[in-house]
Specification:
Layout lengths: L1 H19 L4 H16 L4 H26 L3 H4 L6 H4 L3 E6 L7 E4 L2 E7 L11 E8 L2 E6 L14
Parallel strand pairs: 3-5
Antiparallel strand pairs: 1-2, 1-4, 2-3, 4-5
Helix pairs in contact: 1-2, 2-3
Length: about 160
């Protein structure tokens, strides 16, 4: 029965990692699976907890830094970026006034909610901006000093 508890905990932590993508919860999931192995071998609950703690701590201290160091973005490897990486750095056209609280821009033909990266700046409709960062479904934008006048709105800076 103890093994089932650890397996369920490991699966829950692994699924939670999918939503966080921090490589933090999965290390505890590995510890839970190790504790499930100890439970399957008939180890007492106290030993199972120690196995969980030790394997989780070692995973966090030794494995996670190696994975994070070797996981590089598409921009660093020279591959074609996709998703958020493809949008960051793009040029956009302001459709509705953009300030620290609200706004709308057009990025590569798609409408995005936007906020000013600098809370003191405000951008008027028709202005060109550059996407600095994406948080959730909101683009944080800054003045576009790179694009030339007459350049298409979906061009990259």
């Amino acid at each position: 029965m103890d093994a089932v508890f650890w397996i369920v905990l490991g699966v829950v932590l692994a699924v939670a990692e999918i939503f966080t993508t921090t490589l933090f919860l999965i290390m505890f999931g590995v510890g839970a699976f190790a504790a499930a192995g100890a439970a399957a071998l008939g180890a007492p609950v106290a030993f199972q907890a120690v196995v969980f703690a030790v394997v989780s701590a070692l995973s966090l201290a030794l494995v996670r830094p190696v994975i994070r160091r070797n996981a590089r973005s598409a921009l660093e490897t020279g591959e074609q970026p996709f998703g958020v990486e493809a949008i960051e750095g793009s040029s956009a056209v302001v459709l509705e006034p953009v300030d620290a609280d609200h706004g709308m821009v057009k990025i590569d033909g798609e409408l995005w909610t936007a906020r000013s990266y600098d809370a003191t700046r405000r951008y008027a409709p028709g202005e060109r901006v550059q996407v600095i960062k994406v948080r959730g479904a909101t683009a944080l934008v800054w003045q576009d000093d790179i694009s030339a006048p007459g350049e298409l709105p979906d061009a990259r800076g």
